[in-house]
């Protein structure tokens, strides 16, 4: 039994044309028992900055709280909204501080630069090794399946509506092949002037 | 450290509500060598006088104007040894910021941290305030910054200012000479003229240090470059 697959769950993020999308499933369970279908894994850290924290549920909550603490102090001290790259470095630093007793989460970050509106995605392992690709990032108990779906479906410069379709299909078909992910889905499409959140109607098994 | 034995602060209020130690520290600053900072439209200049008590001094081995990050520089008036400690601490703070955020520290953030450090030495056991005032210049997010940090821990953002010996005359001079549209070259020229007001003897490239900060970052001018600017005022 791996500690990262105790509660189950998955998150993925994709870059589009002038937008980013981040999506996750909604299951919360204890090994094979499903206990909730409305568990929040993706958190809003700023009007155009979202972080997904798949992994051990208790650490999902704690890392979110600790990050919110650091981020609030940063924004008060610096009198400005944080850039997604800087936030990513902050998360990496927070995780590496616990190098030898880590938080069991594998963050996925998606956002738009507050000044240039450049799309940004990044993911890291549980000790903060960052990965900032040009296309998509995945994490969770069905990461392999998500990789397969994203490789097949993603293409560059997708418009927000097309990006929504792509990310939803990638998510759903991946978590349908994982016993401990699924039970509903949520997708956030982040654009310069609005963020659209949609719940997905999925197989509830 | 002395503060292990002294659990009480040496900086205490006088009946009139002043912290006399800080007043004395400011006196030490006012007795120090003159320094000037001017913010131009496209950069900042720091200039200082390097008073040497003997002709045997090797002028170019030790510098007063120091780089803290590629885009932030610093100069002082007051006690050199205190300054060196602050330079070290400021560099460490800047690197700490880099490690956490993978981003260069904004000038205002560094100034706040250095000023907080200076304030700590006015309210801790067994230590005395720093005997320096610092001028910090930087460039971030496309614009120049100039700040002063005092021994009390207070910090001020300036368009132009003078510190050290003859600073009152220096500031009066700058009030007349400063305007918002100064280019960096004109600002260097004005800074030299401000220093010249209270300069004993002749200004040469060996007894004046100049640093500039612009879009490309901070750098100290070489003696040859200083000589060129000095030639223009002759």
Automatic annotation (TrEMBL), chain A:
GO terms for cellular component: cytosol; nucleus; proteasome core complex, beta-subunit complex. SUPFAM superfamilies: N-terminal nucleophile aminohydrolases (Ntn hydrolases). Keywords: Cytoplasm, Nucleus, Proteasome. The gene is EOG090X0CE5. It comes from Daphnia pulex (Water flea). It is found in: Cytoplasm; Nucleus. InterPro entries: Ntn_hydrolases_N, Proteasome_beta_3, Proteasome_bsu_CS, Proteasome_sua/b, Proteasome_suB-type. It comes from the Eukaryota. Component of the proteasome complex. Pfam families: Proteasome. Signal peptide: none annotated. This is Proteasome subunit beta. Belongs to the peptidase T1B family. Non-catalytic component of the proteasome, a multicatalytic proteinase complex which is characterized by its ability to cleave peptides with Arg, Phe, Tyr, Leu, and Glu adjacent to the leaving group at neutral or slightly basic pH. The proteasome has an ATP-dependent proteolytic activity. Component of the proteasome, a multicatalytic proteinase complex which is characterized by its ability to cleave peptides with Arg, Phe, Tyr, Leu, and Glu adjacent to the leaving group at neutral or slightly basic pH. The proteasome has an ATP-dependent proteolytic activity. GO terms for biological process: proteasome-mediated ubiquitin-dependent protein catabolic process.
UniProtKB/TrEMBL annotation, chain B:
SUPFAM superfamilies: N-terminal nucleophile aminohydrolases (Ntn hydrolases). One of its GO terms (cellular component) is nucleus. It comes from the Eukaryota. Gene3D superfamilies: Glutamine Phosphoribosylpyrophosphate, subunit 1, domain 1. Keywords: Cytoplasm, Nucleus, Proteasome. The 20S proteasome core is composed of 28 subunits that are arranged in four stacked rings, resulting in a barrel-shaped structure. The two end rings are each formed by seven alpha subunits, and the two central rings are each formed by seven beta subunits. NCBIfam families: PRK03996.1. This is Proteasome subunit alpha type.
């Amino acid at each position: 039994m791996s500690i990262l697959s105790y509660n189950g769950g998955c998150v993925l993020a994709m870059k589009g044309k002038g937008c980013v999308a981040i999506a996750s499933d909604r299951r919360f369970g204890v090994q094979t028992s499903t206990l909730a279908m409305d568990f929040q894994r993706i958190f809003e850290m700023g009007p155009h900055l979202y972080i997904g924290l798949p992994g051990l549920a208790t650490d999902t909550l704690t890392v979110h709280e600790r990050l919110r603490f650091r981020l609030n102090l940063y924004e008060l001290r610096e009198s400005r909204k944080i850039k997604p790259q800087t936030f990513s470095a902050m998360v990496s630093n927070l995780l590496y501080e616990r190098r030898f007793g880590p938080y069991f989460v594998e963050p996925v970050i998606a956002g738009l630069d507050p000044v240039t509106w450049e799309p940004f995605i990044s993911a890291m392992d549980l000790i903060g090794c960052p990965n900032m690709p040009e296309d998509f990032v995945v994490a969770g108990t069905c990461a392999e399946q998500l990789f397969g779906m994203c490789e097949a479906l993603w293409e560059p410069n997708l418009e927000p509506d097309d990006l929504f379709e792509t990310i939803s299909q990638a998510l759903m078909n991946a978590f349908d092949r994982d016993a401990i992910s699924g039970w509903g889905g949520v997708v956030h499409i982040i654009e310069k002037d609005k963020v659209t959140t949609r719940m997905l109607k999925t197989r509830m098994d | 450290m002395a503060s292990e034995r002294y659990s009480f602060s040496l900086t205490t209020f006088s009946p009139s509500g002043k912290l006399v130690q800080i007043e004395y520290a400011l006196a030490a600053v006012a007795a120090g060598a003159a320094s000037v900072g001017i913010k131009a439209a496209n950069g900042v200049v720091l200039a200082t006088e390097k008073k040497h008590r003997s002709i045997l001094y090797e002028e170019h081995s030790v510098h007063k104007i120091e780089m803290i990050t590629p885009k932030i520089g610093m100069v002082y008036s007051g006690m050199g040894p205190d300054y060196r400690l602050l330079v070290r601490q400021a560099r460490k703070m800047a690197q700490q910021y880099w490690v956490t955020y993978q981003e260069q520290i904004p000038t205002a953030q560094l100034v706040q941290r250095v000023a907080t450090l200076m304030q700590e030495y006015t309210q801790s056991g067994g230590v005395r305030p720093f005997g320096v005032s610092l001028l910090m210049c930087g460039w971030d997010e496309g614009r120049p910054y100039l700040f002063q940090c005092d021994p009390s821990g207070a910090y001020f953002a300036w368009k132009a200012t003078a510190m050290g010996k003859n600073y009152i005359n220096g500031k009066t001079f700058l009030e007349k000479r400063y305007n918002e549209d100064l280019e960096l070259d004109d600002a260097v020229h004005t800074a030299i003229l401000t220093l010249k007001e209270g300069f004993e003897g002749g200004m040469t490239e060996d007894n004046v240090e100049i640093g500039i900060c612009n879009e490309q970052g901070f750098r100290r001018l070489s003696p040859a470059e200083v000589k060129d600017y000095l030639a223009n005022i002759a």
